[in-house]
Amino acid sequence: xxxxxxxxxxxxxxxxxxxxxxxxxxxxxxxxxxxxxxxxxxxxxxxxxxxxxxxxxxxxxxxxxxxxxxxxxxxxxxxxxxxxxxxxxxxxxxxxxxxxxxxxxxxxxxxxxxxxxxxxxxxxxxxxxxxxxxxxxxxxxxxxxxxxxxxxxxxxxxxxxxxxxxxxxxxxxxxxxxxxxxxxxxxxxxxxxxxxxxxxxxxxxxxxxxxxxxxxxxxxxxxxxxxxxxxxxxxxxxxxxxxxxxxxxxxxxxxxxxxxxxxxxxxxxxxxxxxxxxxxxxx
Length: 283
Description:
The chain is of the alpha/beta class. The chain is built from 13 helices and 15 strands.
């Protein structure tokens, strides 16, 4: 019995040394309590955790769809994965001292892949009570928000949400979208014109029939890169935020704690702001 206990403690010691090496750069005091709590967790929880399995395997498995620009996509020229979330997962693996393996999945099977242990985490997904019934989430590190677009010829004329909410302003919306409903509330003093898909609201701005339109910050970044005539209205912040986070195994609190600690550290060091500048600079 004494030998068995000693063997268990030896394994625990070895694992904690490796975990300690990973956490060596986690300096902020407000992160120390979480790190200490992880070190004090029972060996049973540590042994069953994806964190231990990832370190022993030397590989972080990440489920990703590859169809959500600019978060996760496949470069048609190189067939390599790229995007905001691809950079996040690659950095996490590097900080853990393991390689990253991107596992193809779809939005329909994203949660099932976590449940079936096909991957250790997913790239970002919107927070959903339905998903949270069966899967865990990391802390959010990014949010999709609504932002207004205008023609560059109006630069300096519109600088805030309030500037757009005027009887002299025409705002285009696409019928049936969530932005249509939100725009009618935000711009209740402005003139609203509606277009039906496949026509799009931003096309009205390009054609000069509308002063502004509204879309997500993700689509705005892509549209501004595609159409040089468009630019984001320099509002202080977006509207109607929808937080994004990684999907994780719901019962693996050790792994969830580690990922959350890593996210907090990266926020402190401006990592996610740098990625926003890199991938959403077109805003």
